[in-house]
Design a protein that fits this description.
Number of helices of chain B: 11
Order of helices and strands of chain A: HEEEHHEEEHEHHEEEHEHEEEHEEE
Shape of chain A: globular
Structural class of chain A: alpha+beta
Strand content of chain A: 35-45%
Oligomer: heterodimer
Largest sheet of chain A: 6 strands, antiparallel
Helix content of chain B: 10-25%
Largest interface: A-B, 76 and 78 residues
Radius of gyration of chain B: 24 Å
Number of helices of chain A: 9
CATH class of the largest domain in chain A: Alpha Beta
Number of domains of chain A: 2
């Protein structure tokens, strides 16, 4: 699996130019088009045998047209001239029914990325199904061979994807680049008299050489799953909670939801009007770093062509910036922050302590390693989610815990942050270490 | 792309195959080429879809989106193995390429051939209509504007209204080596209203909506759209008064209708055939065992007219069924697609579903609900000394292996001495699938299905589903509030 990316980008660019031209011919005063093409292979191996081989091949086009302040959007997966004409016509037709919206339009021309830095995001891997199966098998074997209590498996998967995307608009912006993404994951099951438990681990990277070794992923999966054996409930209580690094990033993502333009102009956020105010203790610093080389969350420009840039979201615990696209920025009488389509690599500055030291710092409380459900209200900040993890006594893990909930208010949780770990989980777009929160309500038996 | 005149195989084939000159002989040849490998079963799934959505915000319709999608997926199954490839171009050459990629799952071997076509009859639960044309675009915009006005007029504390109207249809055609030859045209519409209310600086949200396999007229009939707007405002106003929810294990009364998400999460996923074949579900090997109190009978029913989760045929061409999952507390069987049914030695229950041509099918729910019992809902509430009455929910999630599930209440009240006393803030409820239904001690006579808003996610694939239940009393469920 491999494709000629220069040719692909050129052909996507020519389709983009064609639809912008069609939009203009239909009388649109402005237009923008986003196109993508992706190839991929995924294999899953279970109990030593192949379970699935899937070949992915996708392409798509989205076109948005503006007639003055009226807007219409259409999408299609068919790039034939007839289909492109239909899509543009559909978008133009919609724009005759939508209302004049003073805030609608392309991002401002002077914000378009003028130079597109090569962020080193494309490392194709011409992996054959046979090799993929071998690697996944090695991964699962390592997990199953780790301990005889591992009784069953959901298998190990390897997937490799690469693609090219192009964005163009009637300011004359035309940009494109290719990316790759490879991942390996494993999930196994342990069983005792109390029932079964499962857990998983995964590795993901732009470059396959940056993936964790197959056997290491398998062993880590096995170790994590075994730890959960004998999980029990605890009594309802109020105690400190340490979120392990792989789940702690979700708290930062709730913050981002709260400072996103859409939540702010709708006044639907627990962080409304907090710009310039203390939302974390003074030791907390959070940055957005869109141009990190070879990193999964990186992007040279956002989905409106606005150049992305490095900035502080939180400094000394004080909120420095919102997360805005051009539409929400206009509604708020502010400037786009290059976040149309989301954030690109949010990093919470690590502290001094690793997870073991943070457990000692916590003393007695709950280490949360899994969160379940969607009980987070961004409007009010109320937080209540299912959880599993470990009860900790005197800084040491005592036993696994499950079937409990943890609850508080996000605003309180942020202000009650006691420490940020140095154990950053680099796999996610939000790069965060373990987070220690002073106290939350645990509901159990 | 024009919608077929009817949902007959010939009409759908005219839409999906004719433009590229494909016919059933081509499909048979492609399937036969897959069967030259050691393959037990193969299928080709053709799909063409058209969808739109309109969104109102700040009193005006700011955006509309129109999308079309089409393609074909080729799957080869050998034992427990599946090979799968797809193309977004419906034509012979990409179809042959996809078939060649899919059959690589098995070595060249015994040629089992393709059986003679048997046309699946399928149900006629909904009409093959294109909802997009059922209302003029101007009327769609005016409907949303009217809902905005209604919501704001209903109470001056309403500060924001977001309303969205969405609809479309999928045409699907299936040809399989077991002789299955089936087609379906599936319309789907959805309307949603969400509001923000404010009082004394406190802001709360509420949202309501509905949908079904009909056209947009559904939302105009019986003023259903207006009903959603008023319901969203009512919920938001209730939340303005809400106090912190309690924390701990207590008696919980679940309202009728959408709270049936309990069944979907707590037991539904755990009864899907794939997990049980693999022995990874907390319910594996439990057929014939008691998994619920004898008050509980739970079905998965894809045969309800016009419901969001209903299917004339599933995505493997099997007519959907009304499958009894739990009868008077005893586990009767699982939901099956063809692959898992064959490996477990049972018949498919018409639960083979896929998000699109670009996804592999697997066992999925349709409309999952509990049959009604004897008690009036008021009796059930009156029986509770101290507990929670939860009537509206957001989403849920389950770990099918451990059986632990959660679902989050968005509207709930305290019950004290048999009386509803005050509203409490939303909270997550957590339980263990294999024992939560054993603690159902009262079942209401007020079975209701949800208004048609459910979407279920599994292994990255989303499909529309329905849930339902009568009012239930669960004697001990953990409520994740903050108030100790």
């Amino acid at each position: 699996m491999s494709h000629d990316i220069i040719k692909d980008q050129a052909s996507l660019e020519s389709v983009a130019a064609q639809v912008l031209e069609l939009a203009k011919a239909q009388g649109a005063s402005a237009a923008e088009a986003a196109l993508s093409e992706e190839l991929g292979l995924s294999v899953n191996v279970r109990l030593g045998d192949v379970e699935t081989i899937e070949f992915n091949k996708d392409k798509g086009l989205g076109i948005t047209v503006y007639f003055g302040q009226r807007k219409g959007t259409a999408s299609t997966g068919d790039f034939s001239t007839g289909a492109l004409e239909d899509a543009v016509r559909a978008a133009c037709s919609i724009a005759t029914f939508t209302a004049e919206d003073p805030y609608a339009g392309l991002a401002d021309a002077d914000r378009m990325a003028t130079e597109i830095p090569d962020l080193d995001l494309y490392y194709p891997w011409d992996v054959s199904p046979e090799t993929a199966i071998e690697l996944a098998t090695e991964c699962e074997d390592a997990a199953r061979g780790y301990d005889e209590r591992i009784s069953n498996s959901e298998g190990a998967s390897l997937s490799s994807h690469e693609g090219t995307r192009v964005y163009a608009n009637s300011h004359g912006f035309m940009g494109g680049y290719s990316t790759s993404r490879h991942s390996m994951s494993c999930s196994v099951i342990v069983e005792d008299d109390n029932g079964m438990q499962r857990d998983y681990w995964y590795s993901v990277a732009r470059d396959r050489h940056d993936l964790e070794a197959a056997a290491a992923i398998g062993e880590k999966t096995a170790a994590r799953t075994l730890q959960r054996l004998g999980g029990r409930r605890i009594d309802t209580c109020k105690v400190p909670v340490l979120f392990s690094a792989d789940v702690a990033g979700s708290l930062v993502s709730h913050m981002i939801s709260g400072i996103r333009g859409g939540s702010l102009y709708r006044k639907s956020s627990f962080l409304l009007d907090k710009l310039g105010e203390q939302i974390f203790p003074a030791f907390v610093h959070i940055h957005e770093r869109p141009h990190m080389k070879k990193v999964l969350g990186s992007a040279p420009y956002d989905s409106e062509g606005v150049a992305t840039y490095e900035r502080d979201l939180v400094r000394d615990g004080v909120l420095q910036s919102y997360v805005l696209d051009s539409y929400s920025a206009r509604k708020l009488k502010m400037e786009s922050t290059g976040n149309s389509g989301g954030v690109h690599n949010v990093l919470i500055e690590p502290g001094e302590l690793d997870q073991a030291a943070l457990l000692r710092e916590m003393g007695t409380g709950l280490l949360v390693t899994e969160l379940l459900g969607m009980g987070v209200n961004i409007v009010t900040g109320d937080y209540s989610r299912g959880a599993a993890g470990f009860w900790v006594e005197n800084g040491v893990i005592a036993y696994p815990v499950d079937e409990i909930t943890i609850a508080s208010h996000l605003g309180d949780m942020f202000m009650q942050l006691q420490a940020v770990g140095n154990d950053i989980d680099h796999r996610s777009n939000i790069k965060c270490g373990s987070l220690l929160i002073d106290a939350m309500t645990i509901a159990g038996s | 792309m024009n919608i077929p005149m009817d949902a007959s195989i010939d009409s759908v084939a005219q839409q999906l195959l004719a433009p590229s000159g494909l016919d059933m002989n081509n499909l048979e040849q492609v399937l036969a080429s897959i069967m030259t490998h050691d393959v037990d079963y193969a299928d080709l799934y053709f799909q063409a879809s058209r969808f739109e959505s309109w969104t109102l915000e700040d009193g005006i319709v700011t955006d509309g989106v129109h999308s079309v999608e089409q393609g074909v997926g080729a799957r080869a199954v050998s034992g427990e193995k599946s090979g799968f490839a797809y193309s977004d171009e419906i034509a012979l050459s990409p179809l042959q390429e996809a078939a060649t990629a899919a059959r690589a799952i098995a070595r060249q071997g015994q040629d089992k051939g393709v059986k003679a076509w048997t046309r699946s009859a399928g149900h006629r639960l909904y009409l093959p209509t294109d909802p997009l044309g059922s209302l003029g675009d101007k009327a769609k915009v005016e409907l949303l504007e009217m809902l905005d006005r209604e919501a704001r007029q209903f109470d001056p504390r309403v500060k924001e209204v977001i309303a969205s109207l969405a609809g479309g249809y999928d045409s699907i055609l299936l040809a399989a080596t077991d002789g299955t030859h089936a087609a379906d045209v599936r319309p789907l519409v959805r309307l949603n209203v969400s509001v923000i209310v404010e009082q004394d600086g406190r802001r709360e949200q509420g949202s309501a909506g509905g949908g079904c396999r009909r056209d947009y007229q559904y939302f105009i009939d019986e003023d259903r759209g207006i009903g959603y707007a008023k319901e969203a405002v009512r919920q938001a106003l209730v939340n303005l008064e809400a106090k912190p929810a309690p924390a701990g294990t207590m008696q919980v009364v679940l309202g009728s209708g959408w709270p049936g998400i309990l069944l979907h999460e707590a037991i539904g996923h755990g009864l899907e055939g794939d997990f049980n074949r693999k022995g990874t579900s907390a319910f594996s090997g439990c057929v014939g065992e008691r998994v619920a109190s004898d008050l509980c009978t739970v079905v998965d029913d894809g045969t309800l007219e016009h419901r969001r989760g209903s299917l004339n045929v599933d995505d493997e061409g099997v007519p959907s069924e009304n499958t009894v999952l739990i009868e008077k507390g005893v586990l009767k069987g699982y939901m099956q697609d063809k692959l898992n049914a064959r490996l477990m030695g049972v018949a498919s229950t018409g639960n083979g579903r896929r998000e699109s041509y670009a996804h592999l099918p697997m066992p999925r729910m349709t409309n999952t609900y509990m049959l009604p019992g004897q008690h009036a809902p008021e009796e059930i509430i009156a029986s509770v000394k101290n507990g929670l009455y939860a009537v509206n929910f957001g989403g849920g999630q389950v770990d099918i292996t451990s059986g632990k599930f959660v679902f989050s209440a968005s509207e709930a009240y305290m019950i004290e001495d048999g009386k509803i006393t005050y509203p409490v803030k939303g909270a997550t409820l957590i339980g263990n699938g294999p024992d939560v239904l054993q603690r159902v001690t009262m079942v209401g006579n007020d079975l209701a299905l949800d208004p048609g808003v459910g979407t279920c996610g599994k292994e990255g694939q989303s499909v529309p589903v329905g849930v339902g239940q009568p009012t239930l009393l669960v004697d001990g469920l953990t409520v994740g509030g903050t108030d100790v």
